[in-house]
Design goal:
Coprogen_oxidase_aer_sf, two-stranded antiparallel ribbon, transmembrane helix, porphyrin biosynthesis, Coprogen_oxidase_CS, oxygen-dependent coproporphyrinogen oxidase, EC 1.3.3.3, alpha+beta, seven-stranded antiparallel beta sheet, about 450 residues
């Protein structure tokens, strides 16, 4: 169509050459966009569709995770056609405008920039179609502020929520209920929960985006971590967002997993902003399985090593220190990574690291669910799982900083904050496992954290 329009105009050979060059660039943009959309869907499908056929090969002290089968494809036809049509229409309009007045080359450049903006906005709309729910922030606002970190982080946590929920639905056979909630002081969230299902007794994946002013109690918590905050008239405007998930399986041989990744931004009196990222992923098994521990920690290490060789060893130690039940003298689980107040080396590089971390939540955990979901277990093993869950509850209610911050923030949704608690748990007076048992082995690991790699 573009070639016919150009041919019909009686211009000089030089102008015709320019027309063809621009037409070629526009059609190339359309092909690239079509390929990009197809790649996005196919890569997402390829990452998770082969998990049911996963197997583990042990070689000496190492473990290699392999996937079998052909990756499935997501129904991306509609989105690819939509992107192609949008670009085709824009390309035709741009060529017609150029032909009408070939001398105004600046107009063609402006049209090209408009096409680029339209593509970016369309990308946000396409991403939203794949989420568990519409984002907390209005899509129009996200489009207007697509370059800001708050927008980019919100889109990332929404995407992570959708990928993890769908991977868990596939292994469980049940469906998550997406529960939207609003905070009158500003913001809201989407809590996706599945309860008493086939594999999971309770699984929650929650996204929250809140803003307003820090309370005095919340500000004190920030200052206790070394944050020097200068508010205006005692007020500190803030924006906080994050994704948090805790999975409690029915089978005691399937471990519990927790992950949380968040972004915090505070505006000070002079209008400047302080920002930082935080989060981590950790595993809490009922019974020790060293192959599982290796797979879990190695997946996290590979993500960390892409950014800094000290990230994994430093954040692994931080995790062991943070998830520690002091009154019991034991860690909550076998650790993982944990970090807070990450504001270097730059905002862009810190965000890139967070993106790498969120990309691990499915491959470091879902294969373990497939591996153990059908394992046989005894009543005594179920009892031990219930007792370990009691320790989990103790840490979350007594020490967890996220829970304490949420309870101190006005308008917080208590159901979402306490989503991490299991449906059932047990506390027995002066319980001690039998010496030499698998329960005693697990307790020894919790009292003396190991290096798993």
């Amino acid at each position: 169509m573009a070639a016919l329009l150009l041919h019909s105009v009686n211009r000089s050979a030089q102008i015709t050459t320019k027309h063809c060059f621009i037409s070629h660039k526009v059609s190339t943009l359309a092909r690239l966009q079509d390929a990009h959309v197809a790649s996005f869907h196919n890569s997402a499908a390829h990452r998770w569709s082969s998990l049911p056929g996963a197997r583990w090969l042990s070689r000496g002290t190492g473990v290699r995770f392999m996937c079998q089968g052909t990756a499935g494809r997501l129904p991306a036809g509609r989105s690819r056609r939509g992107a192609a049509l949008v670009l085709a229409g824009a390309a035709a309009a741009a060529v017609v405008g150029f032909v009408a007045n070939a001398g105004h080359f600046q107009r063609a450049e402006m049209a090209s920039r408009v096409i680029q903006v339209a593509k970016q906005d369309d990308d946000i709309l396409e991403k939203c179609k794949g989420f568990m729910s519409l984002p907390v922030t209005d899509v129009k606002v996200l489009q207007e502020k697509k370059g800001e970190m708050c927008t980019r982080m919100e889109l990332l946590i929404m995407e992570t929520q959708a990928e993890f929920c769908r991977a868990l639905e596939k292994v469980d056979g049940g469906k998550f209920k997406a529960d939207r909630w609003q905070r009158k002081e500003g913001g809201g969230g989407i809590s996706c929960v599945i309860q008493d299902s086939n594999v999971f007794e309770k699984a929650g994946v929650s996204v929250s985006v809140v803003f307003g002013h820090l309370t005095e109690e919340a500000a004190k918590q920030m200052k206790s971590r070394g944050k020097v905050l200068k508010g205006k008239d005692g007020k500190l405007p803030f924006c906080a967002m994050g994704i948090s998930s805790v999975i409690h399986p029915k089978n005691p041989h399937v471990p519990t997993v927790h992950f949380n990744y968040r972004y915090f931004e505070i505006e000070e009196e002079d209008g400047s902003k302080q920002w930082w990222f935080g989060g981590g992923t950790d595993l809490t098994p009922t019974y020790l399985n060293e192959e599982d521990a290796f797979l879990f920690h190695n997946t996290l290490k590979e993500a960390c090593d892409k950014h800094h060789p000290q990230y994994y060893p430093d954040f692994k130690k931080w995790c062991d220190r943070y998830f520690y039940v002091r009154h019991r003298g034991e860690t909550r689980g076998i650790g993982g990574i944990f970090f807070d107040d990450l504001d270097s080396p730059s905002q862009e590089e810190a965000f890139s690291f967070i993106r790498s971390c969120t990309s691990t939540v499915v491959p470091c955990y879902v294969p373990l669910v497939y591996k153990h979901r059908d394992d046989a277990f005894t009543a005594e093993e179920k009892r031990w799982q219930q007792l370990r869950r009691g320790r989990y509850v103790e840490f979350n209610l007594v020490y967890d900083r996220g829970v304490k911050f949420g309870l101190a923030t006005p308008g917080s949704r208590i159901e979402s904050i306490l989503m991490s608690l299991p449906l059932t748990a047990k506390w027995e007076y002066t319980h001690e496992p039998e010496e030499g048992s698998r329960e005693a082995e697990m307790l020894e690991v919790l009292r003396t954290p190991r290096e798993w790699l």
